[in-house]
Amino acid sequence: MRAVVIGAGEVGTNVARTLSSDGHDVTVVDTDPGRCSTCQEELDVLVIEGNGASPRLLRELEISEVDLLAAVTATDEVNVIAALAARQLGAGTTVARVRDPDFFGPDESFAHDVLGIDFVIDPDRATAADIARALLLPGSVAVEYFGDGRLAVAEVIITEDSPVCGVPLGERERPVPAYIVGISRGEKTLLTRPDLVPQPGDHLLVTAPTEHLRAAVAHLAVHVEEVRDCVIFGAGKIGMRLAQVLEGTKVRVTMLERDERRARYVAERLRRTTVLHEEGISREAQKGAGVDVADAFVACAGDDRANLLAALYAKRMGASLCFSVVSREEFTPLVDALPIDAAYSPRLITAEAILRFVHKRAVRGIYLLRSGFEVIELEAEPGSKIVGKALGETHGMLRGLRVGAVLRGEEVLVPPQRIEIQAGDRVLMLGVGGALSETEPFFTGG
């Protein structure tokens, strides 16, 4: 497939890297010579310096022959114009990254029905939704749903009290139908095997039917409690949207914002959130906001350095859960070195959304984790190579992967029970760093 990515910033580079590693022909366009040079050095893509919203440049790129155009610059107007121009010139699928909610309102119907843009990505809104899902599932630091909401993948931190700590996975108790598919240990990502022994601090990726998810997470995490009080550092778009979601629950929210004008703006629009004009990093400011007794602390200001520092201080103050938004890839290694429970990357959120358009047939869902894991849901088509294979017989074709669950009609099948893939089954798999890129052909018919 031919793809054009407009914008070589953090989001565009990540999208281009993901598409390129998936075997697609990618062209990246950006106006900044420095970003173009960096992108050319780091990625196996064609890089062109220029204005991606220019119809002249789009014609030179033969945009009518392009299957996907993703406009993901930092400027909403440029992204919308690029997507509109590409659509008029005959591009296949068009995607635009738009962060300003005033552009299209609460949904994307105007962008799709009137402007003809196939999909509008709002990384801030999606990031806030991801954080909210984790906060509302006690014991988890991340959760994503598949199979029309019937199957879930949760990330759980193991402590010394966990029943699986120090026990080989092949010998662990299974009080509920759940399957551990991967372990993130520091900077390492490991697919599970029976002799693998979880250690304190490991992050386990577990699949479970949605109705059993809460019990599965509680069993693994131990001593889990509902989040009742949450402190949010940063009243930007992510922070405000997260507060709006939490206001619809029983969670009490306190927000710290350094900019007085922004604090006043947000306070006027949030009904149940306490908004404090505070810089939010110092011990005095955090203690005044009740961070030391909070069940959760979320750092989502516009500065990655400030987010990581605030989350670190909050953890030392005594906050039970500490999450941080990390927008720039260069700060990702710091997350593993700091006692922060989880980090959320708007870059990966954007890549997920675009990948859902890349795969036309078998793929039903994709989820990318900051640790390097990829989770994908594929539907086995009649006549495909995977049909008729038992899970134990798939290792030759699904190398470097683990099957986490199989959805068959209304039934959710979880290993280690014997499962033979049938046509129409939806198979959830987990892999590391691009291992899933060559999997789709095994699930598609002739």
What does this structure look like?
- By secondary structure, this protein is α/β, with parallel strands linked by helices.
- The protein is 29% helix and 26% strand.
- It contains 13 helices and 22 strands.
- A six-stranded parallel sheet has the order 3-2-1-4-5-6, sandwiched between helices. A six-stranded parallel sheet has the order 14-13-12-15-16-17, with helices on both faces. A five-stranded antiparallel sheet has the order 7-8-11-9-10.
| Largest sheet: number of strands, sense, barrel closure | 6 strands, parallel
Estimated structural class: alpha/beta
* Radius of gyration over C-alpha positions, nearest whole angstrom: 22 Å
- Mean pLDDT, nearest integer? 87
Low-confidence stretches: none
Individual helix count: 13
Oligomer: single chain
Shape label: globular
Percentage of residues in DSSP E strands: 25-35%
Distance between the first and last residues' Cα: 19 Å
How many strands? 22
Give the strand line-up of the largest sheet: 3-2-1-4-5-6
How helical, in percent, are the residues? 25-40%
Please describe the structure with a list of short key phrases separated by commas or semicolons.
single chain, 446 residues, alpha/beta, six-stranded parallel β-sheet, 22 strands, 29% helix, globular
In short:
With about 450 residues, the chain is an alpha/beta fold.
Topology of helices and strands:
Blueprint: E1 2-6, H1 10-21, E2 25-30, H2 33-42, E3 46-49, H3 55-60, E4 68-71, H4 76-88, E5 93-97, H5 109-114, E6 119-121, H6 123-135, E7 140-146, E8 151-157, E9 179-185, E10 188-191, E11 203-209, H7 210-221, E12 229-233, H8 237-247, E13 252-257, H9 260-267, E14 274-277, H10 283-288, E15 296-299, H11 304-317, E16 321-325, H12 332-337, E17 342-344, H13 346-358, E18 363-368, E19 373-379, E20 401-408, E21 411-413, E22 426-432
Parallel strand pairs: 1-2, 1-4, 2-3, 4-5, 5-6, 12-13, 12-15, 13-14, 15-16, 16-17
Antiparallel strand pairs: 7-8, 8-11, 9-10, 9-11, 18-19, 19-22, 20-21, 20-22
Helix pairs in contact: 1-13, 6-8, 6-13
